[in-house]
Each structure stands twice: as structure tokens, then as C-alpha cells.
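Sequence, please.
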């Protein structure tokens, strides 16, 4: 019983964090119960759309002005909760929409060019559905009192929805969309559908229309920078030809001021924010409230106009409390599971700590492994994720040099009849270097979005992760045979030694722990209609297609978590790294270089107006999401190695949990 006390206390703490965090988050999400929040699904010609419907009390008896808000590429409807919470508590009906192949929505349309399969029609399909609902207000002429709003790709979809609505208006005489507000999007992707600036601007007609254009947006609002492939620069959209055209073709204009165009009011807001910052910003939310106050000023009898104050961030902070509880939950759950027969096979004899390196050479080798292990994933992230040709060429050249050197050392070791460790080490490095070179040549294949691997942004992350694993293993092998083997290190010291029973038990333990964790999430979702999140880091419910994708991706991501986990164990095998030092090194291995990448990139953007990697827009945003999730992986890796004596539980748990979290939070093309 004594051995159960600590995990039981941790279990209670984790469940309290989840329960209290979710309950309070739900209270803010529903305006203290005055707004009914539910997930809805509806069929369309192109598949099935889903979203969170925020319906204020009394909306069923008296129809309300309505806002449909949607997310950007890779995200889901929950990313619009600032708008959803603030506007629904003011009396609006709000649908936070998952676009096709994002979140809980599925697109069954043909997808010859996947990126153009979902966003052009998603918002207007949602408008068609919402227009038919009795709780959505229509005026005396049948026009819908509906605003469309979207961030990034959701902005493209919202803009195109207005255009489609205007085409329908020419035939029906009814406008279903009353106003539009986009965030973090300009016209460049809408124009790829064949439209001109003039056609887009004319489509707004008399509708109140607004744009939130971040000054430090990584993608949009500077056509020249985008055309040059150097878009991560400071922007002033209101002074550009496109911005001035939106405002009616003015010669100059001011951000934050309404201008009358074609009988409607138009405005551009310019917060000092980056692209993902828009949907986690009190400033952008204040702009959205200001816009809707103007757009719906005639409906003050149904919705609150001019009401100050924001509460959405409290929902976010308490969802974060629940998120902490969720990640903490796996420690006591696995600890308790492994008290049971079969599950207790996960334990192996905890390897004895090696003595700290004594020679300067051994110390230097350790520092090199640590520095390279931390910096390599960041230094070559742009090459491996964005296919930067200069970086890829350098990587292939380094790989060829490594092949040549290891081959020469191997040949020399046989000629001189060198020690077995020299032959084995150089032979392994030669083999791994050849594998790496072949793998680097497969980048285009890995980047392809296929029916089997439908995660368009998961694929380049996977390519990066496997390459990091191979290079890490090359360095690890060299370090072992040059330094650690002489100190008496064996596979057991790195957490590798285990029989088949241990490995099977570790796998089943990790699977069951994830099932338990997600069962708690689904229970919370059913009771409170919230998930666990902070900003872009979210653990959310998923659909059947995400499970099938997990089975395809997880074996490949296991390579990364397994090898990097071993590398951390190699570098912390001495007694010097007992306690918190070991956790620090583990974290440094996983995310140290990525943090430096973000500091350099965004530090220069804010200081000089040009990002450290001005061509890296999406990839840098991906890094922002990777850092917190890999921080969790680093802690799990170290904790479960220390607890079980081997690498397997941590590697399996990280693989299953983080792969599932990633797939459920990004685009997943289900049919191609």
C-alpha cells in the first residue's frame, strides 16, 4: 500500500486539475450557462461539416444575428473560441466551423490538388446550412443576417463565400451573408481561383467588411515580399495597392478607420501581431467586437452593442490547467498499471550510473554530442521541412563525406587489424551514413500527400524527425565506441536491454494508458464540451480516420522517439546527471535548438522588421507548436527510463500520444 500512495496522490491531483480546469473553462465557454454549446454535424454535397454551435438562451424563440467563424490551415474550429465566446455571450449565434478534412469534418470530394479541395466551398456550404435554421435571423426581404469570419485559410474561404453569395444574389435577389471579417489573409490565394482584385472588391457590395492584418504576419499583406519568397517581414497593409483597393481605391488611408464603399463600411485593423497570434489576442478580439458592433448596429434589440470586457482568455487558461492535468495523468496511470501482473514486466534492472567522464577528451566528446544533438534539429529544420535546396545540398555533401571517412577508417582497421570496437563502430557508421544519404534523396516522396499518408504537414515533420534520428544514431554510435565503451558502458546503461516480454508489456502499457487518457477527454467533452488546450497546443477528440492514420504514421515516428530517447540516456548515463540535471539535458536534446531558432527568427523580425529566416513562414509556425509538445516528450522519456530501467515505455507512449495529438490537430486528407 505504501508503494501506491504516491501514484494515487498524483492521480487525484491530475484528475482534480482536469476536472476543475474543464468545469471552469466550460463556464466561461458557455457564459455561465447562458449559452448552449454543442457539436453539430451536417451533410453537404462535398462531405460532412462539423462545428461547435454556440446558441444563446432564447435563440430558439427569437432568431438572432449569426456569425460563422472558421480556422486556418492545420487548425480546427476551437481556434475561434475568442470570437465564439465573446459574441455568443453578447447574444449572437456562433458556429465555430471545422473546414473539410480538419477537426471533425470530412471531405468526400475529388482532390486532384488537395489544398484546393476544401477551403473554396467550406464556408459557403456552412452558410447554406445555417441560413435554413430557425434560430438564424433573416430580414423582411429574406436576406440572411449572417457574418462570415475566418483566420488565414478561413479568411480565403470567407472571402470566396462572399463572392459566391453575390453571384447567387444576382439570380435570387437574396444575400445570405450580411458582413465579413477576415484575419491573417489577403487575396493571393483567392486570386489563384482566377479572380482579380477588382472582382473580389466588387463582390463585397454593401456588406460591412473588415480585415485584421497583423504588422508581423508571416505570410500575407505584402505582395512584393511574398512574390520574392521572403514574406517574414514587417507589413503595412493599409498602404498597399490591395489594401487601398479594398477601401475603395483611395490614395491613402488610416488603419482602424471605417470608410464607406458601395453603400457599406469597410475597415482594416493592424495589430502588432504575428500570424498565429491573431487568434490568441485580446487586441484582435477587441477589433472583432468593434467590427460586429458596427456591422450589426441595427440589431441592438437582439444583441449587446458596445459592451466592453473580454472573458475568453479565462476559458483558455483553465483549459490549460486541464491540459497540464492530462499530461500529468500518464505518470500515475502507468505507475499503477505496472503494479499488475503482465504489466509489471515493463521493469528491467535499473542500470548503474557510470562514473563521470574523467579525461578531457571524454568530456569534450560528451559536450559535442550534447551540442550537436540539440542544435542539429534546428539548424537543418528549414532544409528538411521546407526543402531548402542549399541546406539539402549541404546535408547530402556531409553525408557523402561521412560515408567516405567511415569507409576509409573501416578499411584501415582491417589492414592494421585494429580493435574489434573500431571495426564495428566504423562499419555501423558507414551503414547508417549510406541509409541517411538514400533517405535524403527521398524527400520529394515523403512530401507527397497520398491516400496512405494524408497529413500534408505531418509528412515533412516525419521526414525531419527520421533524419534527425539517423544523424543522432550516427553520432551516438561514434560517441559510444570512441568514449563510452572504454568507460564500461553497455547497452543496458542506455535502457536498451530488455527481453521480448518487457517490450510487449511496455507497448500494451502505453496503448492502455493512452486509451485511459482519451477516455477522460471524451468524458470531459461529453459533460463540458471543452478539450484540453492552450493556444495551438491542444488535445482534442478525433474521428475514425485519425485512428487509421495513427496506425500508419506511428511506426515511423517511433524511430525518432526511440533513437533520440536512447541518445538522451547515453548523454545522461553518468551519476553527474542524476536528478534535475538529467531532465534538463533531456529537454535540451529535444527542444534546445528549436528554442534558439525561434529566438533568432522572431527576435530579428521584431527588432529589424525582417525575420531571421525570411522565407520560412509556415515552418517557423510549426516550430512554435513542436516546442511544447516535445518538452512533454522529453520529460516522459527521462521519467520512464528512470522508473523502468529501459527506454521502451517512454518511446511507445511518446509515439502513440504525440502522433495522435498531431494528427487530430491538423489537416488530414481522407480521400484523394
Amino acid at each position: 500500500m505504501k508503494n501506491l500512495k504516491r501514484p494515487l496522490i498524483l492521480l487525484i491531483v491530475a484528475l482534480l486539475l482536469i476536472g476543475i480546469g474543464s468545469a471552469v473553462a466550460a463556464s466561461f465557454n458557455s457564459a455561465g450557462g447562458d449559452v448552449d454549446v454543442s457539436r453539430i454535424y451536417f451533410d453537404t454535397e462535398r462531405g460532412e461539416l462539423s462545428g461547435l454551435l454556440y446558441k444563446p438562451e432564447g435563440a430558439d424563440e427569437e432568431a438572432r444575428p449569426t456569425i460563422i467563424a472558421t480556422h486556418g490551415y492545420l487548425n480546427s474550429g476551437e481556434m475561434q473560441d475568442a470570437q465564439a465566446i465573446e459574441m455568443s455571450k453578447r447574444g449572437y449565434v456562433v458556429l465555430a466551423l471545422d473546414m473539410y478534412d480538419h477537426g471533425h469534418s470530412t471531405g468526400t470530394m475529388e482532390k486532384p490538388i488537395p489544398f484546393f479541395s476544401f477551403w473554396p466551398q467550406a464556408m459557403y456550404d456552412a452558410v447554406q446550412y445555417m441560413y435554413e435554421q430557425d434560430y438564424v435571423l433573416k430580414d423582411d426581404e429574406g436576406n440572411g443576417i449572417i457574418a462570415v469570419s475566418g483566420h488565414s485559410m478561413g479568411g480565403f474561404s470567407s472571402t470566396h463565400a462572399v463572392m459566391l453569395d453575390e453571384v447567387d444574389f444576382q439570380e435570387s435577389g437574396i444575400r445570405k451573408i450580411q458582413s465579413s471579417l477576415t484575419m491573417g489573409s489577403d487575396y493571393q490565394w483567392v486570386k489563384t481561383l482566377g479572380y482579380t482584385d477588382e472582382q473580389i472588391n466588387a463582390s463585397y457590395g454593401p456588406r460591412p467588411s473588415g480585415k485584421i492584418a497583423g504588422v508581423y504576419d508571416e505570410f500575407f499583406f505584402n505582395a512584393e515580399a511574398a512574390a520574392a519568397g521572403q514574406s517574414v517581414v514587417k507589413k503595412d497593409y493599409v498602404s498597399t495597392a490591395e489594401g487601398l483597393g479594398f477601401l475603395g481605391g483611395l490614395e491613402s488611408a488610416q488603419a482602424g478607420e471605417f470608410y464607406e464603399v458601395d453603400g457599406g463600411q469597410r475597415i482594416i485593423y493592424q495589430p502588432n501581431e504575428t500570424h498565429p497570434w491573431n487568434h490568441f489576442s485580446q487586441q484582435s478580439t477587441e477589433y472583432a467586437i468593434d467590427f460586429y458592433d458596427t456591422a450589426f448596429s441595427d440589431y441592438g434589440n437582439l444583441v449587446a452593442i458596445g459592451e466592453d470586457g473580454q472573458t475568453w482568455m479565462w476559458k483558455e487558461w483553465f483549459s490549460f490547467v486541464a491540459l497540464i492535468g492530462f499530461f500529468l495523468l500518464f505518470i500515475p496511470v502507468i505507475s499503477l498499471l505496472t503494479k499488475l501482473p503482465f504489466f509489471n514486466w515493463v521493469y528491467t534492472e535499473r542500470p548503474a550510473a557510470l562514473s563521470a567522464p574523467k579525461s578531457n577528451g571524454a568530456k569534450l566528446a560528451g559536450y559535442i554530442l550534447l551540442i550537436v544533438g540539440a542544435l542539429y534539429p534546428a539548424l537543418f529544420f528549414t532544409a528538411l521541412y521546407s526543402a531548402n535546396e542549399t541546406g539539402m545540398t549541404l546535408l547530402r555533401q556531409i553525408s557523402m563525406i561521412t560515408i567516405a571517412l567511415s569507409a576509409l577508417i573501416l578499411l584501415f582497421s582491417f589492414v592494421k587489424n585494429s580493435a574489434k570496437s573500431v571495426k564495428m563502430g566504423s562499419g555501423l557508421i558507414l551503414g547508417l551514413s549510406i541509409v541517411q544519404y538514400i533517405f535524403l534523396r527521398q524527400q520529394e516522396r515523403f512530401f507527397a500527400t497520398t491516400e496512405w499518408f494524408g497529413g500534408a504537414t505531418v509528412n515533412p515533420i516525419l521526414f525531419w524527425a527520421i533524419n534527425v534520428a539517423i544523424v543522432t544514431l550516427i553520432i551516438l554510435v561514434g560517441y559510444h565506441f570512441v568514449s563510452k565503451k572504454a568507460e564500461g558502458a553497455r547497452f543496458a546503461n542506455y535502457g536498451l536491454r530488455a527481453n521480448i516480454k518487457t517490450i510487449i508489456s511496455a507497448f500494451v502499457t502505453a496503448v492502455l494508458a493512452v486509451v485511459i487518457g482519451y477516455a477522460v477527454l471524451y468524458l470531459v467533452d461529453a459533460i463540458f464540451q471543452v478539450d484540453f488546450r492552450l493556444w495551438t497546443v491542444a488535445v482534442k477528440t478525433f474521428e475514425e480516420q485519425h485512428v487509421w492514420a495513427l496506425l500508419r504514421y506511428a511506426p515511423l515516428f517511433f524511430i525518432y522517439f526511440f533513437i533520440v530517447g536512447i541518445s538522451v540516456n547515453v548523454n545522461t548515463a553518468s551519476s553527474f546527471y542524476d536528478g534535475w540535471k538529467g531532465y534538463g539535458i533531456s529537454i535540451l536534446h529535444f527542444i534546445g535548438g528549436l528554442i534558439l531558432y525561434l529566438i533568432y527568427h522572431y527576435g530579428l523580425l521584431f527588432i529589424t522588421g525582417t525575420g531571421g529566416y525570411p522565407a520560412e513562414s509556415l515552418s517557423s509556425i510549426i516550430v512554435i507548436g513542436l516546442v511544447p509538445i516535445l518538452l512533454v516528450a522529453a520529460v516522459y522519456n527521462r521519467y520512464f527510463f528512470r522508473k523502468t530501467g529501459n527506454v521502451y515505455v517512454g518511446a511507445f507512449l511518446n509515439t502513440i500520444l504525440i502522433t495522435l495529438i498531431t494528427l487530430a490537430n491538423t489537416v488530414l486528407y481522407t480521400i484523394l
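The mean pLDDT is 91.
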